[in-house]
């Protein structure tokens, strides 16, 4: 009786481990690879939020205030900011993606992690706008904004952040769209409302939040998450 019971028990135990359950266990052990749409949405949202916060009190936002007060024509100034940001950030993202493709995953992980941590420290330092060169005053509102904004954005923290984000994520388009939207969210109110908007927005708090975001990205890159 015991032998018959043991024989009946063994096939039932074997039937409990189905091919589907084995496949499920193998799938659970694989790393999670998000759908391209999810990855692009994450790149867009992260880029928008972190650049919008980093732009508060940045020298390019101060430049937007100066140009808006000088020309009193908000639409051409805003269009100039948009065109300059698209061109500048597209170049930065292209360079960032190129660096990511040239480096191995381990080297890229350390470079991105340390870069984001450095960006966190840099974001805490308030920016000051240098005196504008007089030749830009001879240009129209759109052309002056386009030239001045493109040049001031070169080497700025938001441009470097764009390059790092493009190296972090796979989609240049999503990163450029996000960083450009972040710049516009910070700069358009400054153009229309001037210094009144800056007095109402706690720039020091915004810098701290942006620094925390950069630090989080740096930590995630260093531990290899995401």
Q: What can you tell me about this protein's structure?
A:
With 226 residues, this protein is an all-alpha fold. It has one domain (39-223). It is 80% helix and 0% strand. It has helices at 2-16, 19-29, 36-55, 59-71, 74-102, 105-123, 141-153, 157-168, 172-193, 195-200, 203-223. Helix 3 (36-55) runs antiparallel to helix 8 (157-168). The longest helix has 29 residues, at 74-102. Residues 7-17 have low confidence and may be disordered.
Brief synopsis:
80% of the residues lie in helices and 0% in strands. The protein is mainly α. It starts with a helix and ends with a helix.
Task: Record keyword descriptors for this entry.
226 residues; mainly alpha; 11 helices
Gross morphology:
globular
How many beta-strand runs? 0
Spatial gap, N to C terminus: 57 Å
- Radius of gyration, whole Å: 25 Å
Number of DSSP helical runs: 11
In sequence order, what are the helices and strands, one letter per element? HHHHHHHHHHH
In total, the number of domains comes to 1
Query: Biggest β-sheet, characterized?
Result: none
Helix content: over 70%
Q: What percent strand?
A: under 5%
- Ranges where pLDDT stays below 50 over 5 or more residues in a row are 7-17
The secondary-structure class comes to mainly alpha
Overall pLDDT: 79
């Amino acid at each position: 009786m015991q032998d018959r019971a043991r024989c009946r028990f063994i096939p039932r135990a074997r039937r409990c481990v189905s091919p589907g359950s084995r496949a499920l266990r193998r799938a659970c052990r694989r790393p999670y690879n998000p759908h391209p749409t999810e990855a692009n949405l994450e790149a867009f949202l992260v880029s928008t939020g972190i650049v919008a916060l980093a732009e508060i009190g940045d020298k390019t936002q101060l430049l937007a205030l100066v140009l808006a007060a000088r020309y009193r024509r908000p639409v051409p100034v805003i269009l100039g900011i948009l065109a300059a940001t698209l061109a500048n950030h597209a170049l930065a993202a292209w360079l960032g993606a190129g660096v990511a493709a040239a480096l191995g995953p381990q080297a890229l992980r350390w470079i991105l992690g340390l870069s984001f941590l450095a960006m966190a420290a840099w974001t805490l330092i308030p920016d000051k706008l240098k005196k504008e060169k007089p030749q830009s005053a001879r240009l129209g509102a759109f052309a002056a904004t386009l030239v001045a904004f493109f040049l001031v954005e070169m080497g700025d923290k938001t441009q470097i952040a764009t390059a790092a984000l493009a190296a972090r994520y796979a989609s240049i388009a999503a990163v450029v769209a996000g960083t450009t939207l972040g710049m516009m969210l910070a700069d358009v109110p400054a153009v229309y409302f001037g210094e009144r908007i800056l007095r109402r927005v706690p720039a020091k708090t915004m810098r701290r939040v942006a620094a925390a975001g950069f630090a989080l990205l740096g930590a995630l890159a260093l531990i290899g998450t995401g």
